[in-house]
Amino acid sequence: MPSPAPFRRVLTAHSSSDVDGTDVYIHDDAIVPYTILDGNAHVRPLFSHMGIPTTNAHSITTAEIEDAAGKVTDVTLPGGTNCQVTDIGPGYRTPMHRSSSVDYNIFISGSATLITPDGEGGKEKRTTVKAGDIVIQRGTLHAWETDQGQGARWYTVIVSALPVRVGDKSDGKELLDVSQLD
Fold it and tell me: Which residue positions does the secretion signal occupy (predicted)?
């Protein structure tokens, strides 16, 4: 999959000289996603926050914006939130995975198939989603697959959560670190 074209990120805060909340700073830059999964997908954290509820610092610098995105070394930022973009190329299937998070996946182009186990010994449920659809993933096992003709792009807001538990046990199947999927 060729690298997707850079896309625009616009972030607002107050300028450092603001004294009354009326001087708004606009950070406007081009973002290039990172290559993962042997070149079959690209991701890029856009911004993150530690803690929920989070804070809104009065002003923010370009370095602080990059530092916030750089804190995300995995899909989930433990104890925080992450906003990222994901591109998956045509004809690719991700490994089955889960994360300790609630993920709000907003599809903006292409289509993909959400694959989940059905609890019947290896069978799968397959749900096709397309641009305009939203998938809310709540710590469940899943994979994504695109058809041969087109890939998919979506934005995800990822909110850290406690691991899924059945009764008093966690099933222990956590998402691989994104760097391990490269």
Answer: none
